[in-house]
Amino acid sequence: MDNRSSGPYFVELIYRNVPALKQSSFRNVYKYFVLFLTFVIYVTYHLSRKPLSVVKNQLSPCSDVNITSQNCTGGWEPFNGSDGKEMLGALDSCYLFTYAFFMFISGHIAERMNLRYFLFFGMLLSGISTSLFGFGRIWAIHNFWYFAVVQVFLGIVQSSGWPPVVACVANWFGKGKRGFIMGIWNSHTSVGNILGSVIAGVMVNVDWAWSFIIPGLIILGMGCVVFLLLIPHPHDLQPNTNYSALIDPDHQEADNGDNNRYQDERVRLINDDEIDTTNDAININQSQASLEQEGGVSEGDGEPIGFFKAILIPGVIEFSLCLFFAKLVSYTFLFWLPYYISKTGNYDPTQAADMSALFDVGGILGGVVAGIVSDYHGGRALTCMVMLLIAAPSMFIYYIFGGVSFGLSVFLLMVCGFFVNGPYSLITTAVSADLGTHPSLKGDSKALSTVTAIIDGTGSIGAALGPLITGLLSSYGWDYVFYMLIISDVIALLFLMRLSYKETRAIKWRRLFRCCIDNDESSRRLIS
After folding, report:
1. Which residues cross the membrane (predicted)?
2. Which of 5, 297, 345, 475 is the most buried (most CB within 10 A)?
3. Helices in 205-288 by DSSP H: which ranges?
């Protein structure tokens, strides 16, 4: 079934009535607008997920093991009892398990309908469901199951965000510098967390209901912008245009020259078995580089890819399992860091929310650096593995020394965010897009949402387990929580060891090829 359609009327009106904008220039300008628009889209998605982690202290101020309900007042029934922390952990799990399950379904549906409509309805419903949690206070609802059902519904509709935005970016941008572009672009996760922390933190001392209602209104309004302005695929801009011919010729010529220089040598000097690495599985299919380097993926004529075919793409299983544990760690920080800072550092909810945002600042830098490094040497798995290796001791050092001083806590939070969120960012963006345009798919972009959903859906199961386990372990002491996070981080890097080893060999061979080619060219110059 063809899921393409005409673009938004407003954009088409500009396209038809501004003669100064030729097709190629309009397309080149608009693709960067798509990058910006999808960035803002997912900022609002993450912004609307953050309020509960900030409001937890207001809902359950008396649930620590060292505090009894007799000498503590406040909170919101039913969360203000001694088991309030466990109930809040259950709410996190209601959202995260539902989100993880429906992520697989979301990717399947997104492949089969127009992504603009899919995102519009998803954001509309996300805004409503986020606001409903806040209305629980306005309507004086004290039933746990009301909040649990709201979280389940929120998990369902929030799963509408990630597969389509990754597909849109991959549709418009090819594989050249994908890690760098998507590393910067994926900072939307951290920017959304920061804005969500700030907005919810400001409103929580006024009325915690508005900590949910305002983010809900923001994502709802952004959904309307998506409906008016988003074109998911270059083909939708002008269906009869051969958009691959609109590639920037200078960029294409430079990329093709580099590809042609090494292609013959790679085939001649090394057999297929030796280069069957993650780099070949998820990076550039050089025979298609003239189209994909800058102009995005081709539309493809085949049917959308099936689930079982998608998981057989080389690298999908390994990266999915790695993300399971990496996202477990990341989302534990996302949902529990403000609470941990408040309880262990004696900060009020607003200060704790502001400090937790520093973890996301480090995450932004980590995602960008991971993308740049992996673009440079082509080793996505190797980059992730090294960062995960450093993340484990970073978390331990933060736990031991994070409370020594404010300045040291700020520094260690940023370091932890850098190494924890860097691999998570790279896997959910550049790696997912690379695998979704695997050479065996022959440039069929209809695999993008499915592959993205499989990887992020598997990771989201881990994201659901992390906060749930944290809610249980924290009752026995936060040291057990950090041990759990460190062990999870180590397991995540173990899943990438085989791929990292093969990437290391591939990098060594590429350097050897370049050395041989450079020596050959130098010899020819001397002879001539």
Report:
1. 29-47, 87-105, 117-139, 145-173, 180-202, 208-231, 316-337, 357-374, 381-401, 407-427, 447-469, 481-501
2. 297
3. 210-229, 234-237, 249-269, 278-282
Cβ–Cβ under 8 Å, residues 403 and 341: no
How far apart, in whole angstroms, are the C-alpha atoms of residue 268 and residue 12?
A: 49
C-beta of residue 261 within 8 angstroms of C-beta of residue 209:
no
pLDDT band at 29 (very low <50, low <70, confident <90, very high): confident
Q: How far apart are CA 304 and CA 159, in angstroms?
A: 19
Q: Amino acid identity, residue 501? A: Y
Give counts: helices (H), strands (E), the chain. 23, 0
The rounded Cα 273 to chain-centroid distance in angstroms is: 32
DSSP letter assigned to residue 379: -
Helix (H, G, I), strand (E, B) or coil at 476: coil
329 vs 469: CA distance, rounded Å: 11
Residue identified by tokens 């990058």 is 35
Residue 367 near residue 425 (C-beta atoms within 8 A) = yes
Q: Retrieve residue 224's tokens.
A: 């309307």
* Dihedral sign for Cα atoms in the order 89, 91, 93, 96: negative
Residue 293 tokens, joined: 């380097």
DSSP 242: -
What pLDDT is attached to residue 23?
64
Quote the CA–CA distance of 188 and 199 in Å, as a whole number. 16
Encoded tokens for 491: 């397991």
Which amino acid type is present at position 184?
I
- Tell me which residue has tokens 């978390």: 395
Q: Which of 70-84, 151-165, 345-359 has the highest mean pLDDT?
A: 151-165
Amino acid at the residue 518: D
* Euclidean distance between CA atoms 423 and 410, whole angstroms: 21
Angle between helices 115-138 and 51-59 (to 10 degrees): 10
Spatial distance between the Cα atoms of 146 and 132, rounded to a whole number of angstroms: 9
Task: Classify residue 474 by its DSSP letter.
Answer: T
470 vs 206, 258, 338, CA distance in Å? Answer: 28, 49, 13
- Residues 118-136 pLDDT 10s: 999 999 999 999 999 999 9
Alpha-carbon span 373 to 379, nearest angstrom: 8
